[in-house]
Design goal:
alpha/beta, binds adenosine-5'-diphosphate, Rossmann fold, 4-stranded antiparallel β-sheet, binds magnesium ion, 6-stranded mixed β-sheet
Length: 275
């Protein structure tokens, strides 16, 4: 993901990879205008249909003579409101899966439908707008902009989407409150602990009230007690707000707290277990 982000040619601001990842996720200013254009389902997407429908997806990375089949014919359906964990050893394709299914990266074969829409059918601008409005992202290394306060980081997706500054501030403070961090709203990331920074990231992922939250190793950089706390916040949000969570993790403790655990190995789904 970082590699893709750093290859963006038109970055003018802060050169850190965090800044670039945030910019990638939120870079459009045309979100509001495109809403109706992509609200056109490509499949029959009635109530009870899976919110995420992955059909025979393959992903091949090739550079020079090296060819990596990172996803091999992966199919998976995720129900609305489900909390799903994707587990498996390092290098088995978890991050690739998350990037391809969330539309951050393109697939080599197969199709992904999100709420009935084939993301590959959208151009980059519409895809980015769709993500900014309907998805939240939580990464292992918090991706907070160091020069912005906690509340400014959280309101970023709203500001970029054209929400008025006063409304954005109000919603950002509410989101920080949901992760019990309202009292640190004016602190910079450097003044916060790892767990607190990850809570800011969660608040930012939720501030747009997205249907789906994608998390890649959200507890990977945290001690086990803090990791547990972060998981409690995410499970509470999942239960109370009904958001769908897809969480990539190698932490079995995280998997146990999800509704379903998918095991991947060498680019394939090899097992599935419901808790
Ligand atoms: P995981 O997240 O499970 O550790 P990844 O999805 O990052 O695994 O990687 C799956 C496989 O794809 C690995 O063999 C990795 O080396 C390869 N891979 C990932 N990203 C790229 C890339 N941008 N270019 C080439 N190979 C890649
Ligand atoms: Mg990974």
């Amino acid at each position: 993901m970082t590699d893709d982000a750093t290859s963006e040619p038109d970055q003018q601001h802060n050169n850190s990879s965090e800044a670039q990842q945030v910019a990638i996720a939120f870079k459009t200013r045309n979100d509001q205008q495109t809403t109706t254009e992509y609200a056109n389902p490509q499949t029959n997407h009635g109530a009870g249909a899976p919110i995420i429908d992955v059909q025979n997806v393959t992903k091949i990375y090739s550079s020079g003579n090296v060819r990596v089949e990172a996803l091999k014919d992966v199919s998976l359906q995720v129900a609305r409101g489900e909390m799903l964990a994707i587990m498996g050893p390092s290098g088995c394709g978890k991050t690739t899966f998350l990037n391809c299914v969330s539309g951050l990266d393109s697939v080599s074969g197969g199709a992904v439908f999100i709420e009935g829409t084939d993301l590959a059918s959208l151009n980059d601008r519409k895809k980015t707008a769709y993500r900014a409005q309907n998805m939240g992202f939580i990464f292992q290394t918090y991706n907070l902009l160091p020069v912005l306060s906690a509340v400014e980081n959280v309101e970023l997706p709203l500001v970029v989407s054209g929400v008025s500054t006063s409304k954005a501030r109000k919603r950002a403070l509410e989101a920080l409150d949901r992760v019990n961090l309202a009292d640190r709203a004016n602190n910079w990331p450097a003044q916060l602990s790892g767990g607190q920074r990850q809570r800011v990231t969660i608040a930012r992922a939720l501030v747009n009230d997205p249907a789906i939250v994608w998390a890649d190793e959200p507890t990977g950089a945290l001690d086990s007690r803090t990791a547990n706390e972060i998981m409690s916040i995410m499970t509470t949000l999942n239960k109370e707000q009904g958001q769908t969570f897809v969480i990539v993790t190698h932490d079995a403790g995280v998997g146990k707290r999800c509704d379903r655990v998918i095991q991947m190995s060498d680019g394939e789904i090899v097992a599935e277990e419901r808790n």
